[in-house]
Here is the input.
Amino acid sequence: MPEAQICRASGAPLTVVLDLGQQPLGNGFRAPDDTSAEYTYWLRCGFSEVSSLFQLIEQPDPAVMFHDAYAFRSSTSAGMRAHFQAHAERIIDERLGDRTDPFVVELGCNDGIWLRHFADRGIRHAGIEPTGEPAEAARAAGVDVVQEFFTADLGTRLRAEHGPAAVIYAANVMCHIPDIRGVADGIAALLDDDGLLVFEDPYLGDVIRLGSYDQIYDEHVFLFSALSVQAIFADAGLELIDLEPLVTHGGSMRYTLGRHGRHAPRPAVAQILEQERLQGLDRTDTYLSFAQRVRASATALLEALQRARAAGHTVAAYGATSKSTTIYAYAGITSEHIDVILDNTPNKIGLVSPGAHIPVVDEAEFQTRRPGVTFLSAWNHQREIVQRHAWYAAQGGVWLTHVPEVHEL
Ligand code: TMP
Here is the structure.
């Protein structure tokens, strides 16, 4: 089990800033009759002021998390499908328009939610996806898949086989890869001289602002800021040329980088770097006070669920998310507090949640079960879910969220 008391980017010593205790795998949904011992690890976060990089101290082996039956599917949300289509079309129009036969690479293409738009237009591409079932889904969508983890070596091999990449893209993947220096080297080897690296991940600035500590789980070995991305990629000769805050995943940032000196950075880069310094994202004490807010949030949520029970309500959660695993394990929430988790992912329905062992049922059961209180565990899809189920609040159902603090919607 890889453990880092030193920063994975800079090699500097880490200060432990947050301890979320023993946790099961965030995506470790399992059969209700599975009595085998559950894998757990110690979820602690470290910070280094050298790189400004917020990271897990201990992370389960990637092969344990990203296996062939990996349950997460990008395309379960209509909002995410629209988000990736709009971005793919923008890249094609703005970045590929004047290029002859460009080559586009996506790291962690999952079920092809982004890359299928390139495949549809006959653009040369490669989707790097180590997990079997998502890779199969991407192939079915017409995407050319390389079923491996991305490494420095694979970057070099892809360039030898296909030539340099005009665009390398990754969505909610870069923050999953512990060997971030190896990835930076692979990207530097693969990227065309005037090519672009574009990636988006949950944004540390939003996690601190919103108290969304559920963004912290085994798969997210890093939560990036612009300050840390700048530091990580500098050694590979890449610099930030654009930054775009996004609403996806409850607050993300899209980072665009190019080879040093090849592009004029947009004004957003200097602006957001300054804003991050003002927010204290480069200071250890910011994370120590965040840890205190996290403890208070977990206690308040447990108490709200206990009050719902005491009032005689049935209680559900909406969204069998990896994120909520962190909350349930840290706050001590179990099937005593939440009866069922509603979800629309076919391969999660019928399983129980990691650690807490709360049954996952088809979201279609929301109407028939009519829980008195529903914890919006997929809070990052709040608009989509609450609007679609407007009947619920209209009939007196209560939505509960923990973001930015525990309250009823
Ligand atoms: P995510 O927060 O990692 O995107 O996961 C969201 C989970 O919520 C995923 O398991 C799918 C589920 N979901 C629903 O069940 N219904 C919905 O309407 C949406 C948007 C998501």
In short: The longest strand covers residues 191-202. DSSP finds 14 helices and 17 strands in the chain. The longest helix spans residues 284-310. The two ends are 40 Å apart (CA to CA).
